[in-house]
Amino acid sequence: MNESKYVSLAPRSLWMRQALDAGPQADAPALRGDQKLDVCVVGGGLSGLWSALHIARLEPSIRVGVVESDICGAGASGANGGFAMTWWPKFATLTKLMSTDDALRTARASEEAVREMGEFCRANGDDVEFAPAGWLWSATNTSQLASWDDVVTKLASLGESPFRVLTREEVVSMGASERHLGGVFEAGVATVQPALLVRSLRRAALAAGVSIWEETPMLGYEESSGAVKVRVPGATITTSQLILATNAWLARYAQIRRHLLVLGSDVVASAPARERLDAIGWTSGLAISDSRRLVHYYRTTNEGRVVFGKGGGRIGFRSSMNRSTWATALRGPEVIEQLRRTYPTMSDVPITNRWSGAVDYSADSMPFFGHLGESRRIHFGVGFSGNGVGPSLIAGKILASLALERDDEWARSPMIRTPGTRLPAEPFRFVGGTVVRAALRRKEAAQDQERKPSSLDVRLAGLDPTSFVG
Fold it and tell me: Residue 393: which domain range?
């Protein structure tokens, strides 16, 4: 039997507050009374809702339901930066996990997923602030320059050119500050208001006949008589297939935890300052990130805010996932300082919101999908490694095909795999991770000051198996 614990994520992100203020939506009350389903999805975020929607569209007669411990989007799906990215920046990693042909197909599918997301947003009629303005992969100190060279060169040798190399002047003309020294542009990326996207998916799923029960935490499950019994407060759901789509919260399962590192990512949002953004030409919705390991990622909003995040925060210990650990941006002052360092013209603009979210980094920084334990009835997808908005649509297709036992390209995806690398057991993982994170911080601080980091910090930082790009 597998136990879980109800975890409410608060305070809410800017995105979630805006979504909650956007007006009433259809009720999804807590489950009261036993239910029988064909497919039960645990997790009302992007992956879970895409899975349910794909199932309902593929087989409309299927009884599919979603249980969410909080409200839909309360986890990472409503707390991220809203970058709908592809896997082209991770092409080198893809080629280590699969053949070159499969890597190309997988990267192309991720680009198509962003386009398909845009088509869904237009067809569904909800304004989720989807802006296909691309992504600037940049350098904010000299050590970061040319971080993209290997992947650009490799892709060019294969006849692919998703990136356009830019001069410093071109980078600055796109809305980056003078701190930016160079970069490449990828057109196939979009920004989105992620909580509004969740809200739109929720509405579409309900319209397609999916049952959604919010404030209904899964307490545990067990297989019995050819079915899975999912326990929730005061009720039991009997289902033929179970999809676990709770991202970082899947670290509670040993099979997954050995390949998963949960890290915090802290985010702040400025007050609207449209005139400042107009002055530097950052008006299109362009997504920007730098090339440090503890990545800085930033974008604008329709209101004229700057949302600025920093990866590589606190480290999860074992399967501990609680409100005090993951909801509050403990590095808020540091993130604000980095925003103002990167964009000095924003230095006197107030910060109105700060929040944090848990990021599920896999040992090789790519998602993995599979069956939990020996069962062929229990399916999961995890390890999005800071890039989950765009790939969540692919996750939904893979999980839907697994649950429906289809024989198609998604059921045969090379992303259905077990990572080859195992992370150390606790407490060595937590202690070692803390040491490596501290070394990364010192190394990157020195590089920001154009100083040479210590050789010890360089060696320790090199032990980090995760990456946002590369």
Answer: 2-79+195-258+366-403
